[in-house]
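This is your field. Have a critical look at both lines of this record:
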Amino acid sequence: MRVLLRITAAAAFGWAILLLACKHVLLSDDAFSPIAQGLGNALGIANVVLAYLFWYASRDPLANRGTVYGAIMWTAFKTANDLFDLLVLLPPNHVLPSLGDLAVSLTLLVGLLEALPRLLAGQRPV
């Protein structure tokens, strides 16, 4: 569970970097309205906070079960959002980043759910 939480923290921090620092490199400024840029910045800041919470919880996952549940919800919602993007929103030539995020989110979700029963049984994770 500790390793999974740290990988989840790294994924959240990676998204924060993309949303805060790299969006102007990846997309033109004309691609977003000012409100969309502001919302993207807010989401990037929220991902920094989530990364900190997940990293902090990795020290003692049993004592931070609420954060573990939050990591499970975060990966589940990201998985659902990526599926929606792939199936409904994105044109076929723009699906690769969302497909990569789907693979990472789904892998983390399965890993966290698989490790949860051992955590709740009180076994200290390695």
